[in-house]
Specification:
By secondary structure, the protein is α+β, with helices and mostly antiparallel strands. Helices cover 28% and strands 23% of the residues. The chain binds flavin-adenine dinucleotide.
C-alpha cells in the first residue's frame, strides 16, 4: 500500500496527469486498442515529457510497483497496461520534427505513425512503418516494424538512428551506434525490455506518391494466386512490396455491392519507383490472372498508410497468432487456404508480410531481430466488435496456427504475438537471445520492465 501523501507528492511532481481508480477519465485511460484487454492499474502517469518519465520510473521502482509502458496502446497482448501497478503512459509525448536536409525525423515516444507520416510527407519523405497509421511508434519500432516499405528500405529498426531513453535506474541516456551501442543493438527488435524511449530518431527516404492499394481475387483462385505470389515476391525488384491476405470484402463503399461480404484473397501493393513506369511494371501482375477488384493506382503515401484505419477503430476484440515463414510449399498453401477460407468474422484475416529484400540483407547479428532469413512474417488475427464472438475468434486463430505452424520457420514476430510464454520469446530471438539477456542484465537487472515479450536478465 502506498499512502495518500506519497501519491499526492508524486502527482505534484508531474507535469502531466496522474489518474487513479475513481477519477473521472480512469476507465478511458486504462483502455487499450484491443477490446479483449480489461486491466485495472493502480496508477496511470500521463507523462508530458522526459522529466515526467524519469520521475515515474523512479517512483515505480522505489515502491516496487509492476510497471507497464504505454506507447500507442495497440499491442495485441495488451502490453501497454497492467493490473494493479503503474502505467507510464507516453501518449502526451507526441510530436514529429523533420530535418529535411539530413532526411531524418525525430518522433516523441508516444507518437503514432500517422503523426510521423503526416510530418514527413510535407517534405516528400517517409520512414518504413506498419500498415495502420494509429499504431504507436514506440511498440512497433522496438519490436522491429514491418510494412509497405520493408522490401525497399528495410524494417523500421533498420532506419532507427538513435533513441533517447530512461533506464530502470532513472538515468537518461542516448542509444545509437556511437553511444551505448549494446543498448542500441538490443532495442532494435528486443521490444520494451531495456527502458522507456522518450524520443526516436529515424532516417527517412524520398517517398511521396506510391502506386499501390489492394488487388483482390476470388477465393476459388487462391491456390493459383498464392503460387504465383510466392514466385513473384521472392524475385521482384525491391521497389515493389506486396503483402498477401485472406480477407472479407467490407459491406460498404468504395467496394462494389456484388463483392460485399465475399471472402477473397488479395495482395496489397506498394510500388515506390518512378510513377511513369508503374503501369508497365504492373502489366504482368495484372496479366497473370485478372483480379475481381483492382484498386491499385497512384496514391499519396500517407493515404496508403491509413487505408485500413477506418475499418479497424479502437475497441474491437483481437486475438493474434503468428509465425515467420521461409517458403510456401504447395502443401502449405493448401493448409493456408483451408483455414483462410473459414474466416470467422468479416474483420478477421491473415496477412503474409514480406521481410525479404532490404530487410533480409541485414546480417542476423546486426540487430536483435534474428529472422533475417525469413521470407514472410505471418499474422493470423481473429477480430470482431462483439465480445460474444471472442471464443470463436480464439478457436479459429489457434486452429489455423496449429495447422500452419509445422510449415513455418519456428519463431514469430514479437509484435504479432499474444502473451505466449518464455519459450515462444526464445524461439523468436534464437541465437540472439543470450546476448539480449546479458544486455537486459546490464541495463535492467531486476526486470523492472517486464510487461512485454519478456527477456529475463541473465549473465
Ligand atoms: C491494427 C494494427 C495493425 C498493425 N500493423 C502492424 C504492421 O503493419 N506492422 C508491424 O510491424 N506491426 C503492426 N502491428 C503490431 C504493432 O507493431 C504492435 O501492436 C506494437 O506493439 C504496437 O505498439 P504501440 O506502441 O502502439 O503499443 P503499446 O501497447 O503501447 O506497447 C507495446 C509494447 O511496447 C512497449 N513500448 C511502447 N512504446 C514504448 C516506448 N516509447 N518505450 C519503451 N517501450 C515502449 C510497451 O511497454 C509494450 O511492451 C499492428 C497492430 C495493430 C493493432
Amino acid at each position: 500500500m502506498i499512502d495518500e501523501a506519497t501519491i499526492s507528492e508524486f502527482k505534484a511532481s508531474l507535469r502531466g496527469q496522474l489518474i487513479q481508480p475513481g477519477d473521472e477519465g480512469y476507465d478511458a485511460a486504462r483502455k487499450v486498442y484491443n477490446g479483449m484487454i480489461d486491466r485495472r492499474p493502480r496508477l496511470i502517469a500521463r507523462c508530458a515529457d522526459a522529466a515526467d518519465v524519469i520521475t515515474a520510473v523512479r517512483f515505480g521502482r522505489e515502491h516496487d510497483l509492476l510497471v507497464a509502458v504505454r506507447g500507442g496502446g495497440h499491442n495485441g497482448a495488451g502490453l501497454g497496461v497492467c493490473d494493479d501497478g503503474l502505467v507510464i503512459d507516453l501518449s502526451p509525448i507526441k510530436y514529429a520534427r523533420v530535418d529535411p536536409a539530413a532526411r531524418t525525423v525525430r518522433a516523441g515516444g508516444g507518437s503514432t505513425w500517422g503523426d510521423v507520416d503526416h510530418a514527413t510527407h510535407a517534405f516528400g519523405l517517409a520512414t518504413p512503418t506498419g500498415i495502420v497509421s494509429t499504431t504507436g511508434v514506440g511498440g512497433l519500432t522496438l519490436g522491429g516494424g514491418v510494412g509497405n516499405l520493408t522490401r525497399q528500405y528495410g524494417l523500421t529498426i533498420d532506419n532507427l538512428l538513435a533513441a533517447d531513453m530512461v533506464l530502470a535506474d532513472g538515468r537518461f541516456v542516448t542509444a545509437s551506434a556511437e553511444e551505448n551501442p549494446d543498448l542500441f543493438w538490443a532495442i532494435r527488435g528486443g521490444g520494451g525490455n531495456f527502458g522507456v524511449v522518450t524520443s526516436f530518431l529515424f532516417r527517412s527516404h524520398p517517398v511521396h506518391t506510391d502506386y499501390g492499394g489492394p488487388m483482390l481475387w476470388d477465393l476459388a483462385q487462391s491456390t493459383e494466386v498464392m503460387q504465383w505470389y510466392r514466385e513473384f515476391i521472392t524475385q521482384a525488384p525491391e521497389d515493389i512490396n506486396g503483402w498477401f491476405a485472406f480477407m472479407t470484402v467490407p459491406p460498404g463503399p468504395p467496394f462494389p455491392e456484388h463483392l460485399h461480404n465475399r471472402k477473397v484473397c488479395g495482395i496489397v501493393w506498394c510500388y515506390t519507383g518512378p510513377l511513369e513506369q508503374a503501369e508497365a511494371r504492373f502489366k504482368p501482375i495484372r496479366g497473370f490472372l485478372p483480379p475481381v477488384l483492382d484498386f491499385v493506382g497512384p496514391i499519396p503515401h500517407p493515404a496508403l498508410q491509413s487505408m485500413f484505419d477506418a475499418l479497424y477503430p479502437p475497441g474491437l476484440q483481437w486475438y493474434w497468432k503468428a509465425d515467420f515463414v521461409n517458403e510456401l510449399s504447395d502443401e502449405a498453401i493448401a493448409v493456408q487456404l483451408k483455414h483462410g477460407s473459414e474466416l470467422p468474422t468479416m474483420y478477421s484475416g491473415t496477412h503474409l508480410y514480406p521481410v525479404n529484400g532490404a530487410a533480409g540483407r541485414v546480417s542476423k547479428d546486426a540487430t536483435a531481430w534474428d529472422y533475417r532469413d525469413a521470407t514472410w512474417a505471418q499474422v493470423i488475427v481473429g477480430v470482431d466488435p462483439d465480445p460474444r464472438n471472442k471464443d470463436r475468434l480464439i478457436t479459429w486463430a489457434r486452429q489455423y496456427w496449429e495447422a500452419v505452424h509445422p510449415y513455418s520457420a519456428g519463431g514469430a514476430y514479437v509484435n504479432f504475438m499474444m502473451d505466449e510464454g518464455a519459450d515462444r520469446v526464445k524461439a523468436t530471438y534464437r541465437g540472439n537471445y543470450a546476448r539480449l539477456a546479458a544486455i537486459k542484465h546490464k541495463y535492467d537487472p531486476t526486470n523492472l520492465f517486464r510487461v512485454n515479450q519478456n527477456i529475463k536478465p541473465s549473465t
